[in-house]
Beta-glucosidase (Catenulispora subtropica), 451 residues
Amino acid sequence: MTDHTPLPPFPADFHWGTSTSAYQIEGAAAEDGKGVSIWDTFVRRPGVIREGQTGDVACDHYHRYAEDIDLMAGLGANAYRFSIAWTRIQPDGSGPANAAGLAFYDRLVDALLEKGITPFPTLFHWDLPQALEDRDGWLARDTAYRFAEYAALVADRLADRVEHWITLNEPFIHLAYGYAFGVHAPGRTLMTDAIPVAHHQLLAHGLAVSALRSSGAARVLIANNCTPVWPASSAPEDRVAADAYDALHNRLFNDPILLGRYPDLSAYGAGPDLGGVVRDGDLKVISAPLDGLGVNYYNPTRIAAPGPEHGLPFQDVPIEGVPRSAFDWPVVPDGLRELLVGLAGRYGSALPPVYITENGTSVDDKAVDGRVADPERVAFLDGHIRALAQAMAAGVDVRGYLTWTLIDNFEWAEGFTQRFGLVHVDHRTQVRTPKDSYHWLRDRLAELRRG
Ligand code: GBH
């Protein structure tokens, strides 16, 4: 049953919209001078992507962006987070800008502004130029400097019209899935030896903050994936394991940025210099003041002490007694309130305004006679937006809610099999069909505007 109860009030200038990323929607993988990214390479490895699918065409958004912006406008959104493909701007990750690549994002930004939609570009959503991966990717300090140069090229072109900038998307997930476990590009399986990837991404972020500001960017954010960590029991060993997990997933990325220091990672065998890669002055660069913290929230994580066979100081265990998404992720709306109140408590006045830069769920929904029923997503959005309102009522300064995602897209290792969109996409025909959740959110946003 669809819930039609009005939402609690939100500030009139609150940013409402959707979030996407370049490789997951654009397609046009080799068009207009675009270079090869690690995802273009990774998807061609046998067996790594469900059904052998790729993002070569994805949602063909590169050619259909006007139609997709019409969908945003129809939703009543006033904000849109997308990512810029580094390889469209610098095909090999360094050197002068590729004019056709910049021109695409220029057109996109103008089309958004024409509809009154505030752009929130993300400069890196996991699609590193393959040429940089060939020089050791984020294990190499040099990649951080290359990133700052790329950031400046983009901002020099767009900062006259783009106010909000996001440096990196989820550096933790890129480190863990890409470099530690190898289930995402670049497919490396370094386990705890991947920890320097954290430092080089954070350094890239810090260097980019200053490059972006020099190029006229007004507000700079980062989008971190954050999870409330629940010890599996009150046993001391479970609490110790949960603390170690929190240090890795949350504090490794929030503490250096907001507090200027790394958390204790000795449980992972890493000293304060994270394996010899932290140099004098780096933390000062990394902790450059920010205008917002982007928070991507999906679900809490329940952590127990590891069994004897485990190579890590924790193991995750299922959260019981809650609904689960088609992806089998637990659905815990109150986790968003808990997370935000926890961030405000930990960081206090060091916490800048928060933007929910991703939050959403996968539903196995189907288009039947032009209608897509996705009651699970309606319930998910309703619950999470109410939890967000509670966090704000408790004093957390939140400025926006950008749901993941606009259109069903290339869900990384899952290919097109997990659907997170408000809009259904038939990936054979590219036909877009707004789902019940799209109509639900449109109606709620219209009510909020009427006040
Ligand atoms: C985001 O990552 C990405 O930024 C985006 O590109 C992607 O499409 C979207 O989410 C959906 O996947 O094992 O049950 O505890 C999200 C990272 C990692 C969050 C796995 C939830 C664990 C679920 N996610 N995680 S569970």
